[in-house]
Amino acid sequence: MTGNPTIEKISCYHCGDDCLTEAYTLDDKHFCCHGCKSVYQLLSESQLCNYYTYNDHPGATRARIDRRFDYLSEPAIVSQLIDYTDDQVTMVTFYIPHIHCSSCLWLLEKLHKINPAVHYCRVDFLKKQLNIRFDHHRISLQQLVELLYDIGYEPLISLQDVIKEGNAATEDHLVQKIAVAGFCFGNVMLLSFPEYFGISTYEHSFRQFFGWLNVLFSLPVVFYSGREYFVSAWQNLRRKSLNIDFPLALGIAVLFIRTFFEVATHTGAGFADTLCGLVFFLLVGKFVQKKTYHHISFERDYRSFFPVAVNTIVDEKEKPVPLADLHTGHRILIRNNEIIPADAILLKGHALIDFSFVTGEAVPINKTWGEIIYAGGRQTGEAIELEVIKPVSQSYLTQLWNNEAFNRKQDNRMQTFNQKVSKYFTVVLLVIAIASLLFWLPTDLNRGIAAFTAVLIVACPCALALSTPFTMSAALSIFDRNLFYLKNTAVVEQLAAIDTIVMDKTGTITTSDNDNIQLNARLSDAERELVYNVCMHSNHPLSRMICRYLGTHKRLNLTDLSEAAGRGITASVNGYQVRIGSEQHVSGYSRNTSAGTKVHVAVDGNYKGYFAFAHQYREGLKNINGLETDYELYLLSGDQDHERFELIRFFKTTDKLLFNQSPQDKLDFIGKLQENGAKVMMIGDGLNDAGALKQSDLGIAVTDNVNNFSPGSDAIMDGRSFGKLPAFLKFSKDTVRIIHASFLISLTYNFIGLSYAITGKLSPLFAAILMPVSTVTIISFTSLATHFAAKKRKLS
Amino acid sequence: MSVIYFLIGCSVVLALIFLTAFFWAQRTGQNEDLYTPSVRILLDDSEDADTEK
Question: A472 and A492 in contact (C-beta within 8 Å)?
Fold first, then answer.
């Protein structure tokens, strides 16, 4: 009964998908759809077929339904999107998620050959951005976007441009500061050598010269490169908190002042190279910490999920209106696959709304005339007309976004180890320094001051400040390689502290809806056409899904259509009798078959097979079985409970499975767990989980397309690595252990240094050796240990 | 040995020139995208062959 099509699989020359028909061929090349064929045509007309020589099947499938870019003709919207414009040219940066290979790069930078009005194109491959300069007299922004769409590179246009904001924020000249510190560090080291190795008496004039040069080189290091440490320490002091920047700033200040005095009073060589080295290494550590993964943006709110503009109907004519200007009373037109941006009443047309975005329930819902449709639903089917009853900012969904969970300060959810330790560290450091000063004060004032400053110099928590960034960045890159993207380094520690895990069902532990249909039938093209036409006439959600699965076919005339509710359809098409529905309805008898919804098909009484609608669980879901010994495991689903029994396998007890949960319910549930002292990790996928993701101590968004989706979460996980979740959790604990160990190492160095320092006889040479040695030990220990841990957890 | 004053002066000036060069490269955005140029250089520039067809 089951069988795969026997025809040899031909893949599309453009996108590599399987070609289901042979209708689309050109120049002996096969294409899966008209879209792909037309892209090829466009490229071959412009002599750009080199596109295909760099990679096999580099294109994006064009089998999607056309969207409209009319809103790009609205000047108000255009002006927000472009970077720069004058009389001659306009510059714009697009984010194009599909950029994935060298062919994309080649083609996009050759846009000027397809349309000469484009002057210049530059791709940033890792950020997936395209920078275009074009002549706006000859091509409009809308035409440009349509051109990109035509060649298969649809830009993701959103008025809330996170990428641009992110770029603006990182402008703090950190690299320049490192360059200056490194430059001075190198020179000072060179100038300090003679002092360390001894200068003969007749060369004593050089000592002064070298000393003052060292002071000179220290100036930019302290006042330019190290400025931020003073600023941060001062700000924290005013807030009456001690962070790690305080002892660092103190160390830098003491180093500089002591160097200056020693050189000025001819009493010694000072600690200029320790000072420059310290600042240099600290800044490098900061750079490593900052170099996190900005190719994925985490800060998105509801605006990035909604369209930029909506088509309103004014005086019988369509007019695109920016989303922000949408008011109560506007009549809006929503086409197939468009999202309803605000709560509205259905006025015209047949609405079949897919609320999977909001509730997680994948089966589309019928709405009739006069019903209220909440924002966030996606229309599937014909265009509908609605009247807006609430502005976007007050709709049901956006209210969820505006929940206090979103306004809460994220940084204070859990204190990192570093923050906890640095408080005590500073206090202990100051106590030792003052104690050694008081100890020497009665006998020898100079020695007392020497000991006091030496303690502050030696105990300067350079290694402590470095251990976290280096361990974390090594850990982050390992997570990154395993398709698990964390927002920042603090998330690793939060991951290690979790004791309760809450999961969403649809889209999180099941894969998204498109793959859920499986055709277990041998259907010829003609039969596909028949099935398509019969299903076209049914409003049953399953029929709709079959239609979507089969793609577009020719319309045929139907006669004798009868639909038995809950059982199936019978119809005559082109002289064939087609029966579609339950097994009972189609073949007359019913067997007990395994779980999952099935729709059977028979043509002229011959049984052909069935469509299976199975919820496919993610690969690796069984791995989570091991988690419940260490973690409390809950499932929250917006769905009906028809899979309760299948899920018990994974969750063991039924009382931890909750169904029919609204987004607000989910948020409240997490809040309740937290009140009982749990550290909750929420794993969800969609807008419907956004509130819960934010409320939880650690929100992970699971997605099949990392670039598509990132609600307010702390981490994004590619669906393919879902099964590695237990390994991720264990690895995060390893990472925290490594940080603790490296902290111990750094303390050991500090003890060695301190035992010299409190005697007041710390030589500059000793400090100059101890400091880099401890730094190198810490950095190599953390990176080696992290990689070993990753190997142990099979993550590298 | 006084020549050392001159030599150190020279070396510092030279180092400063390198530092300025680095600043210039940073300002003009040469370090912003470190990956794409490495791919771009592998793409043949066969425009002539293409257009003459």
Answer: yes
